[in-house]
Structures are given as structure tokens and as C-alpha cells.
Amino acid sequence: DAKTTQPNSMESNEEEPVHLPCNHSTISGTDYIHWYRQLPSQGPEYVIHGLTSNVNNRMASLAIAEDRKSSTLILHRATLRDAAVYYCIGDNYGQNFVFGPGTRLSVLP
Amino acid sequence: NAGVTQTPKFQVLKTGQSMTLQCAQDMNHEYMSWYRQDPGMGLRLIHYSVGAGITDQGEVPNGYNVSRSTTEDFPLRLLSAAPSQTSVYFCASSYSPNPSEKLFFGSGTQLSVL
Q1: Using CB atoms within 10 A as the burial measure, which of A1, A104, B43, B65 is most buried?
Q2: Half-sphere exposure of residue A84, counting CA atoms within 13 Å on the CB side?
């Protein structure tokens, strides 16, 4: 498995950008980097994923370091609805994702 | 589409009882899996299936059985419930086992074993 490390918690102000870091120093060349988030009392939901290049979608952007040992999830304008636990996953066994404890993001009004 | 549907949402069992957690998806997904989530922790993989008739163990399979007789359904059976199995259980599915695919999760079953 590609072991990932993330901060336990982060805070952001509403409508400001948020950068959530993740280290995955043991990631292999074929591992995708996935990000999921879990809102309170819900199942995880997909945010974004990438392999080597930076990725953008309507929810977020993913910046992947050139050596792929780290990545950053960028929420461009945090809203109260973005308060959740964010999981970074460096996958090595198909869809058998290994979820760590993630980063708990608090968004302050 | 309903996506991934889990039933029941809540369940209380006594030690030694057995039960089945139901999971169904209507997206014709090949891959399905079960995770458990203990308080303050990430999700841990229990069992997974890459297609009908094919199942395999994840990280924490002891005390659980699965079967996959159809593409749509992937039930999780607790054979003899123990307090250590008190947890929130999530079912997930994706189009294929390819690591580039997205996983879709159900809303979870909260299980308490007394």
C-alpha cells in the first residue's frame, strides 16, 4: 500500500481557499491519488483523483508534486457545506482503498 | 438511479445473534466492497467482490461472510455477533476494479452489539 499522512485537522474561513496537503512518499508509479470526503453521518463521497498531472473538476483541484510523493487538494472557495473529513488515498490494489484517519476540515463563518 | 442502497440504517443485536446487512446497487457495477468504520478512524476493508460469483477477503474479514450471486447485491453476514463488531458499515461499488474508477458509497448501517 501507498501509506499516506495528512494533518489531523485544519480550519478555514468561509469563502477563502483551502489547501489540504497529503504525503504519499511510498507511492508506486501506477498508483492513482484519490481524494474522498465524508460529511457528518454520511458515507464517503468522491472528490477528485489523478495520476501525474494536475486535475480540476467542479468540486476541487488536485495538485500533484512532480515526484508524486505529495499532493494538495485545493478547494477554491470554502463553504460551510465543505466541513468534512477529507481522505487522501494512494491506491495499490485496484479499488481496495486504504483509508487513513483523514483531515477534519472546519469552516468558520 | 438510487445508487448504492444499504438496509437497515440502524440495528441492535445481542452477542451471539446473526444477521445480514443488505447492499444493492443499480448502476451495473462489477466491483463491490464492504468497509467498517470505528469512531474517529478511517474505513477498513472487510470483503470485496470483482464480479458475480467472485469474492475475496480484505483487511478485517474475521467474523463476516459475503456472497455475490448477482451483480446488483452484495450482502454481508455476521455469523455470531460480538461487541467488537459494533461499528458503522459502508458498502461501496464501482464500474470496475480498475484503480482509476470512482467508488460510490452507501449511507451506512450503524450496528450496535450488546
Answers
A1: B43
A2: 22
Residue B58 DSSP one-character state: -
Q: How far is B9 from chain A (nearest CA, A)?
A: 11
Residue closest to A33 by CA, chosen among B100, B93, B44, B35: B100
With an 8 Å Cβ cutoff, is A98 touching chain B? yes
Cβ-Cβ contacts under 8 Å, B35 against chain A: 99
Identify which of B81, B101, B82, B79 has the alpha carbon closest to the alpha carbon of residue B92: B101
SS3 A102: coil
Tell me the three cell numbers of residue A53: 498531472
Please tell me the distance from the alpha carbon of residue B67 to that of residue B86, in angstroms, as a whole number.
22
Q: What is the pLDDT of residues B93-105, one digit of tens each?
A: 999 988 889 999 9
pLDDT, averaged per 10 consecutive residues of chain B (114 residues), comes to 92 97 97 94 93 95 97 97 97 92 95 97
Cis peptide before B83 (omega within 30 of 0): no
The chain B residue lying nearest A94, using CA atoms, is B99
Q: What is the pLDDT of residues A25-66, one digit of tens each?
A: 888 888 899 999 999 999 999 999 999 989 999 999 999 999
Q: Measured between beta carbons, which residues in chain A are less than 8 angstroms from residue B42?
A: 87, 98-102
Label residue A1 by pLDDT band (50, 70, 90): low
Torsion region of A95: left, alpha or beta (phi above 0 gives left; psi -120 to 50 gives alpha): alpha
